[in-house]
Amino acid sequence: MKKPIKRIVVATLLLVMAGAEFAMAQKATWIWYPGDYEIWLGNKMQNRRTERGTFFPPFWKMDSHYVLVEFSKKLDLKTEETIRLKVEGQYNVKLDGKLLFGYPENVTIPAGKHLLNIKVHNQSTVPAIFVDGPTIKSDNSWLVTFEDKEWIDESGKASDTSSGTVYLNAASWNFNAPDELPSQFKLATEPKAAVSSEKKNNGTLYDFGKETFGYVKFNGLKGKGTLNIYYGESPEEALSTDQCETLDRIPVDQATARDVTVSGSKAFRYVYVEDEANLSYSSVSMLYEYLPLDYKGSFRCNDEQLNKIWDVGAYTLHLTTREFFIDGIKRDRWVWSGDAYQSYLMNYYLFFDSPSVSRTTFVLRGKDPVTSHINTIMDYTFYWFMGVYDYYQYTGNKQLIEQLYPRMKSLMDYCLSRRNSEGMMQGLAGDWVFIDWADFKMSKAGEVSFEQLLFCRSLETMALCANLMNDPENSAKYSKLASDLKSKIFNVFWSPQYNAFVHNRENGKLSTQVTPFTNMFAVLFGYLDQDKTKAVKDNVLLNPNALKITTPYMRFYELEALCALGEQKYVLKEIRDYWGGMINLGATTFWEKYNPQEKNPELLGMYGRPFGKSLCHAWGASPIYLLGKYYLGVKPTSPGYQTYSVEPCLGDLQWMEGDVPTPNGKVHVACNQKEIRVKSDEGTGTLRFKSASKPVCKGAEVKQTGDKQYEMTILKGQEVVVKYKNVE
Amino acid sequence: MKKPIKRIVVATLLLVMAGAEFAMAQKATWIWYPGDYEIWLGNKMQNRRTERGTFFPPFWKMDSHYVLVEFSKKLDLKTEETIRLKVEGQYNVKLDGKLLFGYPENVTIPAGKHLLNIKVHNQSTVPAIFVDGPTIKSDNSWLVTFEDKEWIDESGKASDTSSGTVYLNAASWNFNAPDELPSQFKLATEPKAAVSSEKKNNGTLYDFGKETFGYVKFNGLKGKGTLNIYYGESPEEALSTDQCETLDRIPVDQATARDVTVSGSKAFRYVYVEDEANLSYSSVSMLYEYLPLDYKGSFRCNDEQLNKIWDVGAYTLHLTTREFFIDGIKRDRWVWSGDAYQSYLMNYYLFFDSPSVSRTTFVLRGKDPVTSHINTIMDYTFYWFMGVYDYYQYTGNKQLIEQLYPRMKSLMDYCLSRRNSEGMMQGLAGDWVFIDWADFKMSKAGEVSFEQLLFCRSLETMALCANLMNDPENSAKYSKLASDLKSKIFNVFWSPQYNAFVHNRENGKLSTQVTPFTNMFAVLFGYLDQDKTKAVKDNVLLNPNALKITTPYMRFYELEALCALGEQKYVLKEIRDYWGGMINLGATTFWEKYNPQEKNPELLGMYGRPFGKSLCHAWGASPIYLLGKYYLGVKPTSPGYQTYSVEPCLGDLQWMEGDVPTPNGKVHVACNQKEIRVKSDEGTGTLRFKSASKPVCKGAEVKQTGDKQYEMTILKGQEVVVKYKNVE
Q1: I need a labelling partner for B225 at 20 to 30 A (CA). Which of A208, A602, B211, B446 fits?
Q2: Does residue A99 belong to the interface with chain B, where contact is any CB pair within 8 Å?
Q3: Which homologous superfamily is A632-723 in?
């Protein structure tokens, strides 16, 4: 039976690929060397942070694009055609090895086989080309290299570049017109008005109604003096002129009234303006700045609080999904791998915007040589590997792995070179072992079990990717390293005494502390047998005396692990308590940190500063992921949703309904106590559910797989409607 | 006896270092991350080449500067002081860990101990700072890093960067005023007039009298139309409108007369201008563009032809010593390692401009990762290593090795990773094995003996540098690799049959061809015993039937080897024949290639193009090196001319006189048949000479060291005058 199935899979793949190529040839787009645009844009964006009016750049290495890039394309034309060329940079054009004069903007190419090369130099912005002709169009099928190695010998013969030159397929985003220059990229903006204003102290406090991001605008401004603008995610912050995190001081000198938009974008809900006596303006508004994205995922249920949580989560993710997935919009406005990894997962259940994932993955990796962990954080290196493979699993697109595989290997080489004599990784000079901003004390020294676990998962990921890249030798190497490390993790850190993983080993001495991190990730990675799973659930995850997580960051994985263990009811309560708790405190976006258990919870301060905490932090938005994956219950079971599963779980809800996006469509799920409806635009799904009665579905087979357990197939485009009886 | 000597050496070194530091603190200069300015300037310069009006960039990887750099300095102030700050880029200033507001231009620092950090972001040009205060001045004592790794924990505590952050000393050139922005660097220019003009065909041919470089200028230009400008190193080239290598087509549209300078610099002696009927101008002149340099070295003798050769050589080297040492001024105008290595050596005998050597060394190396050989050429990688050590030997400055040592190691790792199973290097995919543009056929495949010889020398160089860097482990490793390889070279390639090294081994089969390259370099490296030296001299170097070298490039080493063997008389004849031959043919600078033995020598064509040959090529200038090192006879015997030797050799000359520059002065040598005079500004020299009679020197001891062999010491500042009788 195996062979026919294989054949079908292959045929489908070929169709998909042919379709992709056909689609590509339809329109021209600006192209560049993979990763280069992302790195350049990342430099621009991550160097925009200010702290109280002072430039505040990252502390890790920022790379640069290749300043000299060659683009090439083999052509086979039925008829002569003329192409238009637009280039960002100084360039030359070579047709069949012969240089054309000057900087041609139009080139006519005769019928037949030809080789077209365009070589571009650009120091300030990314070398990029846009080529458009009747059939010739710049797209991902073009090849690029940063060293063509073509030299001319004494007799005038060009060297053979076919074996010694490394080419990649060109990369693009969505600059699909000649005048949409990649170097001129700007997010979209939209004018918004303040909802109220109030005289306070020596100025006016404006409230924009909810957390937002953009450029404050003074309408009809005139006079001479300085505008002092203090931004706040809270009114307290905006009014604290000497402690608010961001501010602007704008010199004004204009006799006639003119609208003035502040040049630096900021995050705020409140803006407090103090101006000097001889300035006047008619009103204050703003330009809201955002990445235009479709909300492809959705969730609605009978619990309005949960609906509100989903909405606030979606808005939080949207605000932090910009040039890249960033951590928070007030600070750091940087790309952090651990934060981004969560954004990727949430994105698959909301925007399904693959370019945002790929851009972020590229900018995080930067270029060789690897001189430190990603963001200098050991755990963040490991999340990066995991994110690359997830991208393939959700999108079905192998290209990201293809483009990144050499950089994946060199990053893993860096890790492997930093193992200790036990084959484990521990923080060396310059390494930041982060894990979490926890309220309890934990050691980051020695061999931290959590880091070994992520390292092990990263090695497994490398083995999978090596396989995809037809590199069986390295796949075997990584698999062996992973399984050896896994044995060590269990041998060293699993404590029969505590029936859980302990935190670390320092100078050969095992810790007696049980922290949640290693334990809950071991559940998520499927590393535990039934007994150990139960032990972790009872001793760590559901143990009221266990150490408490107080960041949404780690609550993400904690609650996911509980969902994976079927604790959806419990998790719903936690969501209401934690995220509902923030909303009850007035949150319009979710926060970097929140501890509802504290007596006088610190709502605004962090990092030793009274307004240091970010009140719009991507890692706060996890309910959108949990609700999509573990309540609507949709996830891919093979790359790109070719197959997927739907396991709806109401928890304590009466009904729920929503969409989970897939690469080219969505899976719609509606579920109440008596009926489940599922419809999908693509792929072949398996619906699994429990029912207290024998379920009924018109025109489709429902298979019983166990006690009250049922399963059925969902075909593309055909709605499945099942009558059943919820057992919860 | 050993101990006192050591103590003296150490004391001297300390004095030198203290002196250097004292000198540094005297003035502020623009500083940056080592190599970054060079790489940036190299991108700018090497992407200026055009070929017949088309942009013609290099074919190797071009790196970029770090876009985000932190500068820091520990201060200990006796009194409060205010510094002025000028920065290229967006920046912040941190004093004792506290960020100052905005972009401060003046900072007052209280008395006492402080830490000052300035962090700069600049994508387009190199992050650079200029700091000037009464005692605080930006100079090479400042530290720089491209990843400071300073993060802030949840409590606000900054991480410890003392162990995990890699700092280097800042680099500088000679931008010593706040307004001399490194990004605005331009070579000097000087107006020059054409010496004659002549109506030809449809235009006018202007002759500037000799080879030159710069910008053509049209004085009093007016009208509407296109100026067609054809450049020629020869009149034939300028007049060949469809084959000349460089040209400009300038659209003109101006009713009133105005001077117009063409924007792209070109190499030429002749300029042929064709303009459209309705254009007029009063005259054509040029702006000669050059790097201002002192001619510290000099040479004069009784042979006027030799004096002329020296002058033309010096001018050739000056024209090709620009932002960097380039190959030729017409083309490629790129930095080539093999060419540059010769420029370094010539420079030590003419300008002694160390910054030009260090700039060129940095730009050639670029950054990690190493993805190909330097300029993609295997031999050029090896010359690079040799050049770094020579720099130390001639200048006595260890800093270049300090800054480059990590990049030296990674480049050597690249080489080591490309050895075959025999431990030898052979051209792999993408490698260019160059050796020379020879007129005879030679294989570049398999194990080329010449490449192994350079590889061996590079390993020896690495061992020396590792020692200097207090890295005994690697020094031992490189030494062992070198000696193993050396044995192999002799075992495999030394042919008892031919009594010389044979050319290569391909698929296990040894070649029977004896080429000059390996043999003459083995002499220069001192690898041969007396018998083998004699064999090489007789069978290769002085054998009229041996394969002939026809580039000044390899004649450089051929004649140097002969000089090293005492054949100065023979070499003078060769110089007169070869370089004198070019002058007799009208050369005003020396050429890329010249074969006086050809019947109808190809004077202008190369690379399959009628005017492809460069008529001003750095590697053509070797007589200035040979005359300084082997006739005046001056060379360092310990780093920086702390000790040196002077071995004057007249060859067939009656008299000669000249200067050889040293780091802080010069050695003056005057010599005729009866008298030798030597005076030096620094170091301790040893004068060695032959005399047919017992030499006499007032007030100094002359030691006889062999038959007619004498030796005496030259002390700093004291002229030695010896009466002797030349034996030649």
Answers
A1: B211
A2: yes
A3: Maltose phosphorylase, domain 3 (2.60.420.10)
Q: Model confidence over B322-348: pLDDT tens digits? A: 999 999 999 999 999 999 999 999 999
Question: Chain A window 512-551: which residues touch B at a Cβ cutoff of 8 Å?
Answer: none
Q: What is the pTM of this model?
A: 0.94
Sheet holding A90-95: strands in order across?
A98-99, A90-95, A112-121, A68-77, A143-145, A168-169
Closest Cα in chain A, distance from residue B643 (Å): 41
- For chain B, say whether A143 makes contact (Cβ under 8 Å): no
Query: Which among A67, A410, A432 is the nearest to B62, CB-wise?
Result: A67
SS3 A317: helix
Backbone φ, ψ for residue B98 (5° rounding): -110, 125
- ipTM (interface predicted TM): 0.94
Give the chain A residue whose CA is nearest to the CA of B65: A64
Kindly tell me if the per-residue pLDDT of B11 is higher than 60.
no
Half-sphere exposure of A550 (CA within 13 A, CB side): 18
Q: What is the pLDDT, as a whole number, of residue B125?
A: 98
Minimal CA separation from A123 to chain B, in Å = 6
The conformation of residue A471, written as its DSSP 8-state character, comes to -
SS3 B679: strand
| Per-residue pLDDT at B3 | 40
Using CA coordinates, name the residue in chain B closest to A153: B607
pLDDT above 90 (res B481): yes
Phi, psi of B478 (to 5 degrees): -65, -40
pLDDT reported for residue A412: 98
Residue B6's pLDDT is what? 39
Query: What is the CATH number assigned to the segment(s) A378-433+440-547?
Result: 1.50.10.10
HEC string of B406-464 equals HHHHHHHHHHHHCECCCCCECCCCCCECCCCCCCCCCCCCCEEHHHHHHHHHHHHHHHH
Contact (CB, 8 A) for B726 and B685: no
Write the DSSP symbol of residue A67.
S
List chain A residues with pLDDT less than 50: 1-24
Contacts of B437 in chain A (CB under 8 A): 154
Asked if A440 reaches chain B (Cβ–Cβ under 8 Å), the answer is no
Interface of B with A in 104-133 (CB under 8 A): 119, 121, 123-124
B 607-626 residues with CB < 8 A to A: 607-609, 612
B151 near B160, Cβ under 8 Å? no
- The reply to whether residue A371 touches residue B147, judged by beta carbons under 8 angstroms, is yes
Kindly list the domain boundaries of chain B, sorted by start residue.
29-175, 188-290, 299-352+549-631, 378-433+440-547, 633-723
Tell me the per-residue pLDDT of B608-667, one tens digit each, with 9 for 90 and over: 999 999 999 999 999 999 999 999 999 999 999 999 999 999 999 999 999 999 999 999
B55 and A103 within 8 Å at the Cβ level: the answer is yes
Looking at 2.30.29.30, 3.30.413.10, 2.60.120.260, 2.120.10.30, the CATH number of the domain A26-176 comes to: 2.60.120.260
The pLDDT mean for chain B works out to 95
* Structure confidence at residue B7 (pLDDT): 38
Asked if B429's CB is within 8 angstroms of A164's CB, the reply is: yes
Specify the pLDDT at position B276.
Answer: 79
Whole-number pLDDT of residue B615:
98
pLDDT score at A4: 39
| pLDDT for the residue numbered B692 | 97
Residue A536, classed as helix, strand or coil, is helix
pLDDT of residue A162: 83
**Chain A residue with the nearest C-alpha to that of B150:** A59
Options 3.10.20.600, 2.40.50.140, 2.60.420.10, 1.10.287.130; CATH of B633-723: 2.60.420.10
* Distance of alpha carbon A29 from alpha carbon A34, whole angstroms: 14
